[in-house]
């Protein structure tokens, strides 16, 4: 007796994944944990209470219908999945009626690995099957799980690479058994002064390990998405690289490690400014090299920084803040098609400041 | 100090691959060991002595220059690399003047793995670097190394998969350090009554292990080629599969495991009849799925069976036998482009008999 995905289950997973990244659409990562959203609120002087989180997420979800042309999926935090707007409407229903896939962050944060230089794995596998089944019943079609690796002279270690790849594969396997498309996120932090070349080397090792683990765990690749870092130099590296250099390093690393059967790469922004994140995504999609998967965005900070600034916690600012989000989403959709130009930013309040947070934990 | 490939070597390796799998081009695998050549000669009652082997290889190498329209590379056995034609011209120079890339078989055959069900690994790593260096001086630009796996209820075992993947990666690494393109051949034999689904499952596991090993050993994927089996039912499977089914299973397995940075897949024919090998390759090149690598041939028996029959060891048959060869090469060239039609066979004696040899060893 064996446990298998049926053809119907495979078809559903593949269709969900394809839909999320079709025609340049990407993902709004709005799954900041309560602690992390607090850091965002601090920057605009808003108190981190549930009511404010509800107001903010209502702002994001209830944007004009046209948002569906740019956003294929939104990742939510558990709390948000069950919150309602002022009129009592579930926030997730706004997404549903716009045909936007609802995603859910399912990991439970990082824990340290003994014997390492503060390296981590990610927990959250206990009861994950039952949680996924419930999330599926509540309208979620995809999930996200973030692992974290860091570049130094001695890291990431083989243990960190292997352990994180394995836990990502376990998570992916459990999701698929419950009709949920797993987004696999092996983030290599931009912290450090390493070169672009070093980041590319490490990214290739990490992503290769991920796909071996996914194969070992019999994960159906066509029903997954990948959320990697772009290949960039470390934040403190004195050399500055162009978007074209970032694009080539990123594409080379992925072409060497990500099988063509996987439908979409949804990059994390990892502290890049809003406009950098868009420029880099555009360069990736404009590069003259064969790209067998969609290459799009799954941005948190790089979609929301200006939105938060425009909102400042005030009801009177909601409409303006939503316009900012629509603009940012549209710019990234164009970038995902290689059609973006910085002149399109116009007077939109795109944030040029780096959004880097050292040793970022969500 | 790191052992690295220079940009110059990388460029050369890429260029060799591009020439071998240029559109409409594939490989003639003429690297039968002395023992194996004997089996071929038995069928046409030709004595297995060096002179006959020389005459036969001369027949192949001295075809007219139209050979280079279909054949991008030829794999030779060590003996052949140093043989001359009747006029004293090196056989390898006959290839060189046609612009055909010269390859060399470098493995030293299979040996059994203790504790397994007659599973094997392949030997030949000792002094391989020195041998490659010499072969390079003698005009070889690519090499071939064959590993063998077999499907049964309990095989291939994890050991067999892991050990063969590892030895292939060591071989590949050594080749590249000597500016030679490694063709990586993890053949899964067609022996058995298993279904096409089972073959696909095994092929995916084996290839995933191979590409993980290549990554672990820092092999430059853009400077390698892959020589896998097509995904088919076992030789004694009661179900017969169409070329379209073979194509779908094969391309799906490759899409799930082979990074798009790898430039070309040159299928082995593994005992398929000449016309089946061509039909299947054609179907593979017509299938409506994104195929980021070239999909071509590296055929031994499926290019030579009719040639041997036409030759019968007789000098007066050489011209006709060469015509037979050029025609078979042309059919496969068309198949690489998805432009083959079985009706094209009508005029000639394409060999429809299966060329299956149980438990094939070269």
UniProtKB/TrEMBL annotation, chain A:
From which residue to which does any coiled coil extend? Answer: none
Q: What's its top-level EC category?
A: lyase
Q: Which PANTHER family match?
A: FRUCTOSE-BISPHOSPHATE ALDOLASE (PTHR11627)
Q: Which family does it belong to?
A: Belongs to the class I fructose-bisphosphate aldolase family.
Record region (Disordered) = 342-362
Entry keywords, A to Z: Glycolysis, Lyase, Schiff base
**Species assigned in the record:** Clavelina lepadiformis
The UniProt entry, under Pfam families, shows: Glycolytic
InterPro entries listed in its UniProt record: Aldolase_I_AS, Aldolase_TIM, FBA_I
Q: Which NCBIfam families match?
A: FrucBisAld_I
Q: What is this protein called?
A: Fructose-bisphosphate aldolase
Q: In which pathway does it act?
A: Carbohydrate degradation; glycolysis; D-glyceraldehyde 3-phosphate and glycerone phosphate from D-glucose: step 4/4
Under catalytic activity, the entry for this protein gives: beta-D-fructose 1,6-bisphosphate = D-glyceraldehyde 3-phosphate + dihydroxyacetone phosphate
- Enzyme Commission number(s) of this protein: 4.1.2.13
């Amino acid at each position: 007796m064996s446990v298998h995905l049926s053809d119907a289950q495979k078809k559903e997973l593949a269709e969900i994944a394809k839909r999320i990244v079709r025609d340049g659409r990407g993902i709004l990562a709005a799954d900041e944990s309560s602690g992390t959203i607090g850091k965002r609120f601090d920057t605009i002087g808003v108190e981190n209470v549930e009511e404010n989180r509800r107001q903010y997420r209502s702002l994001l979800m209830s944007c004009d219908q046209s948002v569906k042309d740019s956003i294929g999926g939104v990742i939510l935090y558990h709390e948000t999945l069950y919150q309602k707007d002022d009129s009592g409407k579930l926030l997730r229903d706004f997404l549903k009626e716009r045909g936007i896939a609802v995603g859910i962050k399912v990991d439970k944060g990082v824990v340290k690995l003994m014997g390492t230089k503060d390296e981590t794995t990610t927990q959250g596998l206990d009861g994950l099957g039952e949680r996924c089944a419930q999330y599926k019943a509540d309208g979620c079609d995809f999930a996200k799980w973030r692992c974290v690796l860091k570049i130094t002279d001695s890291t990431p270690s083989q243990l960190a690479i292997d352990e994180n790849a394995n836990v990502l594969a376990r998570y992916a396997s459990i999701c698929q058994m419950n009709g949920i498309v797993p987004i696999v996120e092996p983030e290599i932090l931009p912290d450090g002064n390493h070169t672009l070349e070093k980041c590319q080397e490490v990214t290739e090792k990490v992503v290769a390990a991920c796909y071996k683990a996914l194969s070992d765990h019999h994960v159906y690749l066509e029903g997954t998405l990948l959320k990697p870092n772009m290949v960039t130099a470390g934040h403190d590296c004195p050399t500055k690289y162009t978007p074209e250099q970032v694009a080539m390093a990123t594409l080379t690393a992925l072409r060497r490690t990500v099988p063509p059967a996987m439908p979409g790469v949804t990059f994390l922004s990892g502290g890049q400014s809003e406009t950098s994140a868009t420029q880099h995504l555009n360069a990736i999609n404009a590069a003259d090299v064969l790209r067998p998967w969609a290459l799009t965005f799954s941005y948190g900070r790089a979609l929301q920084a200006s939105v938060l600034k425009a909102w400042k916690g005030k009801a009177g600012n909601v409409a303006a803040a939503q316009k900012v989000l629509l603009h940012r989403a549209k710019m990234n959709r164009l970038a995902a098609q290689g059609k973006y130009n910085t002149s399109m930013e116009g007077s939109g309040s795109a944030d040029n400041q780096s959004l880097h947070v050292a040793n970022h934990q969500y | 100090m790191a052992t690295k490939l220079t940009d110059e070597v990388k460029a050369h390796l890429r260029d060799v691959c591009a020439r071998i799998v240029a559109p409409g081009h594939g490989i003639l695998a003429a690297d039968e060991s002395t023992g194996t050549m004997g089996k071929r000669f038995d069928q046409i009652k030709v004595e297995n002595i060096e002179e006959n082997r020389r005459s036969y290889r001369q027949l192949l190498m001295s075809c007219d220059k139209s050979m280079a329209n279909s054949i991008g590379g030829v794999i030779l056995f060590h003996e052949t690399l140093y043989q001359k034609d009747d006029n004293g011209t090196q056989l390898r120079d006959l290839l060189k003047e046609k612009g055909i890339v010269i390859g060399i078989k470098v493995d030293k055959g299979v040996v059994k793995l203790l504790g397994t069900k007659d599973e094997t690994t392949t030997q030949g790593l000792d002094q391989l670097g020195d041998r490659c260096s010499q072969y390079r001086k003698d005009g070889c630009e690519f090499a071939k190394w064959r590993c063998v796996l077999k499907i049964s209820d309990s095989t291939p075992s994890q050991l067999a998969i892991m050990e063969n993947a590892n030895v292939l990666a060591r071989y590949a690494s050594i080749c590249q350090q000597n500016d030679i393109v490694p063709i990586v051949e993890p053949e899964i034999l067609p022996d058995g009554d298993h279904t096409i689904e089972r073959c696909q499952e095994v092929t995916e596991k084996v290839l995933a292990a191979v590409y993980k090993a290549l990554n672990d050993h820092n092999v430059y994927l853009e400077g390698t080629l892959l020589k896998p089996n097509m995904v088919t039912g076992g030789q004694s499977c009661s179900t017969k599969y169409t070329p379209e089914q073979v194509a779908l299973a094969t391309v799906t397995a490759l899409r799930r495991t082979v990074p798009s940075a790898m430039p070309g897949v040159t299928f082995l024919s593994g005992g398929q009849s000449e016309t089946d090998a061509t039909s299947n390759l054609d179907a593979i090149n017509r299938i409506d799925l994104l195929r980021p690598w070239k999909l071509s041939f590296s055929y031994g028996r499926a290019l030579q069976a009719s040639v041997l029959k036409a030759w019968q060891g007789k000098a007066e048959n050489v011209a006709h036998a060469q015509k037979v060869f050029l025609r078979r090469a042309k059919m496969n060239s068309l198949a690489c482009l998805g432009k083959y039609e079985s009706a094209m066979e009508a005029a000639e004696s394409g060999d429809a008999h299966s060329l299956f040899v149980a438990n094939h060893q070269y």
